[in-house]
């Protein structure tokens, strides 16, 4: 089912060979991150040293993981590549589309009814193309990956930001957009700017109420939500070895909250124990043979300032438990200091819910430590003042935790055990106790606590803490409760104190599961039919994009001149539109509706040059499309910043926009436009943005000579007949020009394979 040991042996052979070579070429000892990066170069053996934060490098990841929301468009696109199977081992996990409400059994049943067409599609397409499929209820993608697929020294990508969780098992695991995943599934390289490196030296040992979660809550407080941008955070030092593997996963998981490319730890005994406990002793045996290659060189860790771009040191022995929030995960406050802060900021002290789970903190160890607190409430006759909700990370964890009586303890406190899925962490929570926008406080062990994230209410103040701290706070019902110093009044009117939490790193009787929810794909899936209902409003098979003819680039109309910020959210809004992310035609109805029209400063209100009337951007564009008229979008600086969402390029392309001309691009969006066979162009002279008028028509006079390193010439014809001729730059190389000429990168792959 799970991993292929021969593949791992191959990766390990590669690591031994290439790391030595990389050390020779760079002329220095190497960090673990560099070892993994240099041993996964697309070109094979390293031939040159890369500059961190500067060079773009092609990599060959070992694995791909996709979750149900992002997998839809990724797999629809992959089908376009005309391949028989995915080129790299891939799994799909159904975890985002299950709403938490009444508890696992009923919630799962409802999700299977409301989203069955999406699940059926994902299951059939996985079966056809050799992709491992994890059914709804099987677990949260990153826990399932950690338990089944992650391995020390490996590189993986996933269509979810918290793919980084696998760093807990010594991987370089990175969250990407669907377009990148599709490239790798189709056998292409994956490009990444060679990351900078932040070293975090951990000394001492966790004790008392402090948990692994507090390490990252502290780091988030130091680095803030942007501090890790473009960098891999590598943890090392004696303290790192004292952390469990799943605890390391928690720390890496929330690296996404400081913007880090990913985070990782060197291979150690805790990882070995986890591998053996999860039935992967053969990987542990192989990893033991090359142990020194699966961690940073001694010299690096002895003199970290010399080898990392930034170094932070944290003493675990003196680290205090934290609660971070509200509304941002980097607002770190040590427990015990929160009461005063809450009073000053008028945050509600009363806590309504304590939620334990999410991909961040739903391991066996997490549940056992939280259960030790819950058990004390039972033993000491304390009635919890808040509601409890639990989302186990995987069916394997749930089954084992139930067997070992951990869930029973929570149930005695009236907790609702939700499905092994994301639930409240992604706003999939039908919260029974609140309607409307009342101000309230919740605590959870998740990673993100932005406004509206858990329950859609902008006034829900969410605080992030370790599972055991969440349990303690939920029992007390107060944000200002400090379990290390405060007492609680029990049902007998006695003052009682909670003892420090205790937990088990791994289940003493081993993990157990009846049905883990995995479906292996058919060996030969060629006869499998992909299930998409013709009248589905959520899914639509894609048609290959038709190449844009040079003749169509004469008389191009202006669709919108966007003013100021235009992010991928402005181009393809999220929220309710996420429902349609597998249906290009339907989701295209949100195209650019958030962009501000430079001529009237309104959103979704542009002039239709054919009628002179104003209308919504998608409607006007559909009228141009119906008449076979191509259009251009003009934009400001950093156009397309935000997420790597490929929809932001696919939708305009689908609707007939031929070119996007801006002052500057966010790089990922620019690449996405290229992949979809569109023109992504920048003004050679930024001031030319001001020449563009509402009724302009554009002629791409030398498009027939479109070639690498050669700017294009654009003739702008204004309403009064006057013309301006300007130069526009592009960054297409020869290969990317072929994508354009074929209509898309996937069209080219298909053609090459034919
Ligand atoms: Fe799911 Fe929340 Fe993790 S949405 S994948 S549990 S961050």
From TrEMBL:
Residues 34-477 form the Aconitase/3-isopropylmalate dehydratase large subunit alpha/beta/alpha domain. It holds the Pfam family Aconitase. Residues 558-686 form the Aconitase A/isopropylmalate dehydratase small subunit swivel domain. It comes from the Bacteria. SUPFAM superfamilies: Aconitase iron-sulfur domain, LeuD/IlvD-like. CDD domains: AcnA_Mitochondrial. It is an enzyme of class 4 (lyase). Keywords: Iron, Iron-sulfur, Lyase, Metal-binding, Transit peptide, Tricarboxylic acid cycle. Its cofactor is [4Fe-4S] cluster. Pathway: Carbohydrate metabolism; tricarboxylic acid cycle; isocitrate from oxaloacetate: step 2/2. This is Aconitate hydratase A.
């Amino acid at each position: 089912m799970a991993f292929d040991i021969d593949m791992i042996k191959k990766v390990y052979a590669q690591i031994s060979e290439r790391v030595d070579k990389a050390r020779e070429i760079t002329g220095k000892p190497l960090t673990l991150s560099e070892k993994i990066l240099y041993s996964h170069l697309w070109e094979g053996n390293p031939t040159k040293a890369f500059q961190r934060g500067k060079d773009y490098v092609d990599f060959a990841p070992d694995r791909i993981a996709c979750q149900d929301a992002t997998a839809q468009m990724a797999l629809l696109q992959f089908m376009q590549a005309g391949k028989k199977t995915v080129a790299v081992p891939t799994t799909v996990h159904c975890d985002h589309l299950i709403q938490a409400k009444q508890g696992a059994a009923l919630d799962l049943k409802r999700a299977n009814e409301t989203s069955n067409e999406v699940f059926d599609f994902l299951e059939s397409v996985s079966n056809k193309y050799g992709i491992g499929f994890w059914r709804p209820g099987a677990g949260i993608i990153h826990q399932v990956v950690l338990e089944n697929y992650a391995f020390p020294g490996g590189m993986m990508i996933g269509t979810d930001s918290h793919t980084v969780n696998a760093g807990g098992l010594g991987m370089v695991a990175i969250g990407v957009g669907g377009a990148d995943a599709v490239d790798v599934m189709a056998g292409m390289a994956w490009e990444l700017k060679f990351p900078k490196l932040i070293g975090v030296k951990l000394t001492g040992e966790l004790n008392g109420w402090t948990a692994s979660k507090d390490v990252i809550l502290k780091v988030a407080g130091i680095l803030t939500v942007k501090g890790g941008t473009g960098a891999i955070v590598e943890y090392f030092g004696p303290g790192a070895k004292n952390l469990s593997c799943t605890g390391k996963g928690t720390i890496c998981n929330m690296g996404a909250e400081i913007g880090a490319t990913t985070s990782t730890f060197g291979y150690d005994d805790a990882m070995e124990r986890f591998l053996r406990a999860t039935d992967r002793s053969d990987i542990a045996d192989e990893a033991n043979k090359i142990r020194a290659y699966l961690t940073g060189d001694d010299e690096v860790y002895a003199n970290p300032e010399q080898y990392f771009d930034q170094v932070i040191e944290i003493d675990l022995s003196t680290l205090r438990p934290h609660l971070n929030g509200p509304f941002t995960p980097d607002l770190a406050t040590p427990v015990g200091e929160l009461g005063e802060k809450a009073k000053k900021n008028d945050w509600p002290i009363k806590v309504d819910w304590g939620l334990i789970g999410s991909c961040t903190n739903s391991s066996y160890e997490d549940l056992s430590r939280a259960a030790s607190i819950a058990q004390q409430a039972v033993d000491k006759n304390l009635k919890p003042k808040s509601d409890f909700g639990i989302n186990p990370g995987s069916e394997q964890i749930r089954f084992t935790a139930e067997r070992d009586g951990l869930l029973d303890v929570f149930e005695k406190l009236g907790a609702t055990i939700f499905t092994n899925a994301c639930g409240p962490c992604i706003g999939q929570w039908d919260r029974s106790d609140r309607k409307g926008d009342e101000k309230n406080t919740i605590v959870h062990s998740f990673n993100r606590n932005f406004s509206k994230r858990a329950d859609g209410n902008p006034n829900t103040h969410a605080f992030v803490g370790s599972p055991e701290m969440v349990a303690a706070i939920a029992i007390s019902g107060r944000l200002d409760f400090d379990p290390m110093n405060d007492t609680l009044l029990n049902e007998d009117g006695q003052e009682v104190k909670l003892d420090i939490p205790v937990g088990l790193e791994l289940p003493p009787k081993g993990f157990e599961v009846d049905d883990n929810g995995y479906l292996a794909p058919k060996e030969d899936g060629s006869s499998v039919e992909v299930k998409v209902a013709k009248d589905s409003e959520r899914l639509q098979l894609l048609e290959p994009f038709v190449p844009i003819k040079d003749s169509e680039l004469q008389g191009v109309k202006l669709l919108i001149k966007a003013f100021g910020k235009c992010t991928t959210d402005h181009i393809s809004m999220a929220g309710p539109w996420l429902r349609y992310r597998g249906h290009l035609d339907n989701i295209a109805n949100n195209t650019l509706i958030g962009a501000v029209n430079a001529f009237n400063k309104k959103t979704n209100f542009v002039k239709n040059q054919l009628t002179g009337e104003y209308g919504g951007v998608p409607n006007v564009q559909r009228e141009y499309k119906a008449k076979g008229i191509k259009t251009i979008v003009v934009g400001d600086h950093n156009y397309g910043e935000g997420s790597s969402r490929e929809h932001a390029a696919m939708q305009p392309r689908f609707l007939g926009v031929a070119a996007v001309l801006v002052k500057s691009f966010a790089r990922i969006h620019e690449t996405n436009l290229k992949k979809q066979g569109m023109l992504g162009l920048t003004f050679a002279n930024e001031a030319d943005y001001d020449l563009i008028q509402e009724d302009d028509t554009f002629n791409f006079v030398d498009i027939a000579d479109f070639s690498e390193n050669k700017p294009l010439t654009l003739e702008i014809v204004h309403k009064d007949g006057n013309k301006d001729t300007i130069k526009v730059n592009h960054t297409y190389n020869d290969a990317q020009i072929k994508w354009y000429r074929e209509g898309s990168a996937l069209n080219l792959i298909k053609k090459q394979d034919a």
